[in-house]
Design a protein that fits this description.
Elements (H helix, E strand, L loop, with lengths): L13 H27 L6 H33 L4 H26 L5 H25 L15 H15 L4 H10 L2 H4 L2 H16 L25
Helix pairs in contact: 1-2, 1-4, 1-5, 2-3, 2-8, 3-4, 5-8
């Protein structure tokens, strides 16, 4: 059965929010791969933007893991004994992935030769592909009934959350976006249009004018011929 971002009744939930992050990680890893191949071929026009994007990716993935380790995982484990072994495996994955992000900082600092950075991205894809799939299949069902998002404590937090949702929603179907708006508190939803507009510009600076898809699942849909052909 295909895992969908929305619940069976068409509403968004905290499950949607987590899967949107997974969508963003999968999408960006593919974009990094394509961009680094282009740099290796001699196209350095977006090198600085790609380096900046790596710093944002590092911070986002590390923050995602921290939130899971200190919030979502303990909460689910305390209420559902059946997922405790799965969560232990996922936490072990985090301990392997996070040091790789640190090594990525050095690899992306100098992309005159992108070989090391491409190796980091390849390794992250190898580790994150089963990791995210496990979360999607085994933890997401427990989050479907959570249909409220906490009100940000202040304007700064609301802006930070809006930037995060703008990143995660890029490439997602308009129907899903509409339902996410309905899930979020007004103070956050009101900031999303401007945040999404700003992210679209950032996205093009780093990756170029490529189709981003319109997916209803946590798997990015790049379209039939949107991805650059990679060299084996």
């Amino acid at each position: 059965m295909t895992l969908t971002l929305l619940n069976d009744d068409g509403t968004a939930s905290m499950a949607t929010c987590v899967m949107l992050s997974h969508h963003g990680f999968r999408r960006d890893l593919k974009r990094f791969e394509s961009a680094l191949v282009a740099i290796a071929r001699g196209d350095t026009t977006r090198r600085v933007a790609v380096q900046e994007e790596w710093q944002k990716f590092h911070a986002t993935l590390h923050g995602h893991h921290q939130a899971e380790d200190t919030g979502m995982f303990p909460n689910l484990a305390s209420r559902n004994e059946s997922v405790r072994k799965t969560i232990a495996r996922l936490e072990a994955d985090h301990r392997e992935i996070d040091p790789l992000l640190e090594r990525g900082d050095a690899a992306f600092a100098d992309l005159a030769d992108p070989t090391a950075a491409l190796a980091i991205i390849t390794r992250l894809q190898i580790l994150l592909t089963p990791h995210l799939a496990t979360e999607d299949s085994e933890l997401i069902p427990f989050l479907r009934d959570a249909k409220s998002f906490p009100v940000p404590p202040n304007e700064e937090a609301a802006a930070l959350y809006a930037a995060g949702f703008a990143w995660a929603l890029h490439g997602v179907a308009a129907q899903v976006v509409e339902r996410v708006y309905a899930l979020l508190p007004e103070s956050l939803a009101a900031k999303l249009p401007a945040a999404r507009s700003e992210f679209a510009k950032r996205y093009e600076r780093a990756w170029g004018p490529v189709r981003s898809g319109a997916t209803f699942t946590p798997i990015p849909d790049f379209g039939a011929s949107a991805e650059p052909r990679l060299v084996a």
